[in-house]
Structures are given as structure tokens and as C-alpha cells.
Amino acid sequence: MGSDGVRKPRFLCLHGFRTSGEILKTQLHKWPQSVLDNLDLVFVDAPFPCLGKSDVEGIFDPPYYEWFQFNKEFTEYTNFDECLQYIEECMIKYGPIDGLLGFSQGSILSAALPGLQEKGVALTKVPKVKFLIIVGGAKFRSPSVMDKAYSSSISCPSLHFIGETDFLNKYGAELLESCVEPVVIHHPKGHTIPRLGTLLSYYIFIFVIYLY
């Protein structure tokens, strides 16, 4: 609850590939406390231990986790259904969950979940996702997932951070085409959670608090 007794919007936070919930929490410390204080953020680890080298070794301490596994072309996925079930279990355990906040692999999942929920193939036991905050996002490339996740537009409000030098930059732009009136914040950095100045903090505050 906030100081005025009103429940703050609760976001389930999905971290990047081969990182962890604790690492994402640390990465979000770049954001002003005035923003974080207005959100109820729930950080969880992905269900599968890291099966290879993590890009954050030497920067953040282990353990590291991954949401699912995939081939080089990102068109075939292993343990994907188990991942979806696990996210739903987290939403039940920590609910009510209002929105999803994702970075990298977590953002790809977050952006696909409203469509999968609408088609009845995921999150069938929890309320509809109301908000998305997507940092370094993209679409799934498997036709079997794309046909369900993006067959209709993502209608819930979505806030997207796209880095100018992010290797997923063009894929993040493609994701916007599937969203209804997305709010987009461009930043000069790469595949990272950017620092927020006063103006960008204001955007997040308006996006989440006003809509909530």
C-alpha cells in the first residue's frame, strides 16, 4: 500500500537471459527512487539454472537463470510451456499482479503474454495483464508462437525503452507494430536498462499511475 492507503500497481519483473531477479533489481536501481516508490515490484528467478556462460559473469554474482532455451535462429524453444506455467504460478503466488516488466529475454516473454493469454494458451488462471513495461524487447520468431501472441494487437498500455545501439533495436521497433498506441522512449545506450532523467521519470509516473 502507498502512504495514502491506495494499493500501488504490482508488476512481476522478468529478468534477462542468464541473469536473475536480484540482478534485475540491482539494474533498476538506475531509476529514481521517486519512480520505484510508486511501483510494487516483484522479482523472481527464471525456472531453469543457467546452462552456459552468462554475459554478466564478472559484473554480477551468480547464480544465473534462464526462462527457456532456444536455437541460434530463435525459432525453436525448449521448456517453453514449462516457462509459461511457472510464470502463471508466480502470478498466483504473488498476486494480484497488474502488469509485467521485462528486460531482454524477460521482455520478449512479457510482450507475448497478453496475446497468449487472450488466446487461452497461457495465464488462464489469473486476471488479464493490464500494463507492460518493455526494456530491450522483441518478438518471438517461431510461427507457432507468433500466430497466437501477435495475431491481434496488444491492446493493454505498453511502455517501451529502445536503445539506439541495442542489437535488438530493429526488433524492438517491429514489436511496436503489434501494440496499440505504445509509449516509446528512445535512449542513446545499448542493450541495457537506461538511467532515467527527470523527464523520463515523469513519463513512467504518468504512464503507470494515471492509467492505474
Automatic annotation (TrEMBL):
Record's keyword annotation contains Membrane: yes
Transmembrane region(s): 193-211
Keyword tags: Membrane, Transmembrane, Transmembrane helix
Alphabetized Gene3D superfamilies for the sequence: alpha/beta hydrolase (3.40.50.1820)
Domain Serine hydrolase: 7-196
SUPFAM superfamilies: alpha/beta-Hydrolases (SSF53474)
Keyword Transmembrane appears in the UniProt entry: yes
Alphabetized PANTHER family for the sequence: DIHYDROFOLATE REDUCTASE, OVARIAN CANCER GENE-2 PROTEIN-RELATED
Name the UniProt record assigns to this protein: Serine hydrolase domain-containing protein
Organism whose genome encodes this protein: Glycine max
GN (gene name): LOC100500670
